[in-house]
Design brief:
The chain is mainly beta. The protein has one domain. The protein has 2 helices and 22 strands. The strands form 3 sheets. Strands 1, 4, 7, 10, 13, 15, 17, 19, 20 and 22 form a 10-stranded parallel β-sheet that branches. Strands 2-5-8-11-14-16-18-21 form an 8-stranded parallel β-sheet, with no helix packed on it. The radius of gyration is 27 Å and the shape is elongated.
Length: 252
């Protein structure tokens, strides 16, 4: 029934709401083309196991977006507005689309899987926290927007102490203000170089003037004990050379 309603709306370009369903699902083997329609999901989730084309359409008030393994979401030039979780185990075709995370019924959100977005926006007036799956990388080709408020910075963190990564690609632009970062590294362009870490716990390589995580080189270092042993070894070699005529050079 849900799929039938979506197909009908796509044909006539209607704006409609589906508040009575827990999830809008496109199953494996099914194909759906939004054809430029504007759809208010009324706070329910979108689950893609088949093939979905959004064209220039709008998906609004989505709780979660899940692209399952084998599923394809071709975003075209659409706008997807969600307030919960994003999970990408399939194929996301970014086009020139906008994916906007906003305040809503969920107090926190999460982003899992490696996705390349055309334009990614996370905006919150409530200090909302987003957990990025540890080890995952989110690539942004065009515009990255991260906006909190002066009284409540939006929070970005890894799902564990292992870092997650954000890659703003060359040529992309950023609009970042009032953001806290915990265990999330910037591996592309440096992010928020003139801002401060607003509420985050740190481990924010590539942010706030802390250098780029992708270019951080590990410089070998020696402990004080190692240095002392090295000096003692050199001293012993020098004494041996002085005592052994074969190792010394006779001056004229």
């Amino acid at each position: 029934m849900v799929q039938f309603l979506i197909r009908a709306a796509a044909c006539v370009g209607l704006w409609f709401c589906l508040p009575c369903f827990a999830q809008v699902s496109v199953p494996a083997g099914a194909a759906f083309n939004l054809a430029g329609a504007s759809v208010d999901l009324g706070g329910v989730a979108l689950h893609v196991s088949g093939a979905v084309q959004l064209g220039s359409g709008v998906l609004q008030d989505v709780s979660d977006v899940t692209i399952a393994s084998g599923g394809t979401l071709d975003a075209g030039s659409s706008t997807i507005s969600l307030f919960g979780n994003w999970s990408d185990s399939g194929i996301f075709v970014r086009g020139s689309s906008h994916v906007d995370f906003v305040d809503g019924a969920a107090a926190a959100g999460s982003i899992a899987g490696d996705t390349t977005f055309a334009n990614l926006s996370l905006v919150s007036a409530s200090g909302k926290s987003y957990a990025f799956a540890a080890g995952s990388t989110q690539h942004i080709a065009n515009v990255l927007t991260l906006q909190g408020t002066a009284s409540a910075g939006i929070q970005l963190r890894s799902s564990s102490s292992t870092p997650a990564y954000i890659d703003l690609q060359p040529g992309g632009t950023q609009n970042i203000q009032y953001v806290g970062v915990s265990h999330v590294h910037a591996t592309g362009q440096p992010l928020a170089p003139t801002e401060i870490n607003d509420g985050g716990s740190g481990d924010a390589l590539g942010w706030f003037g802390n250098g780029a995580a992708a270019n951080v080189a590990q410089t070998p270092t020696l402990s004080l004990t190692s240095i002392a042993l090295l000096l003692l070894g050199l001293f012993a070699l020098a004494r041996r050379a002085l005592r052994n005529p074969a190792l010394t050079r006779t001056l004229p």
